[in-house]
Amino acid sequence: MPSAPPPAPEPAPFRVSAAQAGLIASNFLMWGGFFAVIPLVTVHFSGPTAGGGLGWSAASVGLVLGLRQLTQQGLTVFGGAWSDRLGPKPLILAGCLLRTAGFAWMGFADSLGVLLAAAVLAGVGGGLFDAPKSAAITQVTREEHRTRMFSLTSLSGNAGMVTGPLIGAALLGLGFRSAALAAASVYLLAALVLAVTLPHLRPQRGAGRSLDGLRVAALDTRFRRFTLVLIGYFILSTQINVAVTLKAIALAGTGATGPLYGLSAGMAVVLQYPLLRAVERYLPTRTALVVAVALVGLSLGLMSVATTFPALLACVALYSLGTMTVYPTQQTLTARFAPPALIGSYFGFSAISLGVGGAVGSVLGGALVDTGAQLGFPALPWVTLAAIGVFTALGLRWALRGLDEAPTDAA
């Protein structure tokens, strides 16, 4: 009688390495530095001169912020491909240094042209470190631990999102230049942390020429479907800054934005990691992503019947539970699609969904609110967004069919 096969080895417990700790800490610094200065750009350059602002038009400041976003998202696609050729560390460090220079230059901007140039430089920096940072997380983390590692990284980013504006507001009393220089120095500190903790991750065999990886990602039918369907989710995730904010102001005035963003970011800091641990235990990663996107759509649909600010905040809490689950599961699945030698290219290509979805969502959210008001049908934006959520969830279920699940972590 043949002997029974030996039991499968237990998965290794998750222990944060020096490289992982450096990535988590630097992500906190990057998000904190970003939110310490970017909200102040509007306050300083378009604020009334009587209050210390420069009195520029809101349109000109919107152009600056939009150009930075467009530059960063456009370059992210190529930054991922370059990291497959050079390794992620040089690109992340170069990106941090360029972001340092861009933010510092903003502090000395006295004309629209100078501010635009500084914003483009800051955007180039972000485009260089964005996808390589995700590639580095993937390379220094075992497959069964990646969802948890992406969750910790996201948590650190949300913590930076909460603390950054507080630090920036405090520094604004010393002048915008001081705030911009302080935010720039934070990126320099992030570069130093990664220079010490992150090893040089050599490109793996099979990376090919600089843009070959992007070509492979674009021709990967299942991954292309996954990326395109995710545009629907990013249309929804943008609404916290558009339709949801407009409804909050309509219900409770301009002071409503503080509690709105505080609740969203605060929930992510407190709940994201334990929530992801529970999700990992009971749901496959693919299912978790589909359910989370459906939850985001449902929460936006429920906002159609929220007639008080507390009711709206309850919907925002539900919305946040969905969004905080999407990021780590989406990143984990992107890494699972990618061949080991082309991880950066796949993360770069995936940035298309955020760029397109964010741009479409910003326009669509405001247009739906205006159209609903003109038609006397204020529920229009929320019904439409809920429908987008349903179709996106179904689309993800279709796009992820046949993708193998990674081994689970029992630790």
From TrEMBL:
GO cellular component: plasma membrane
GO molecular function, one term: transmembrane transporter activity
Record-annotated membrane-spanning stretches: 21-41, 114-131, 152-174, 180-201, 228-252, 258-276, 288-321, 341-367, 379-400
Keyword Transmembrane part of the UniProt annotation: yes
InterPro entries: MFS, MFS_dom, MFS_trans_sf, MFS_Transporters
Compartments it resides in: Cell membrane
Major site of localization recorded for this protein: membrane
Topological category with respect to the lipid bilayer: Multi-pass membrane protein
Keywords, sorted A to Z: Cell membrane, Membrane, Transmembrane, Transmembrane helix, Transport
Lineage top rank: taxon: Bacteria
Major facilitator superfamily (MFS) profile domain sequence ranges: 25-407
PANTHER family according to UniProt: MULTIDRUG RESISTANCE PROTEIN MDTH, RESISTANCE PROTEIN MDTM, PUTATIVE-RELATED-RELATED
Protein name: MFS transporter
Organism annotation: Deinococcus soli
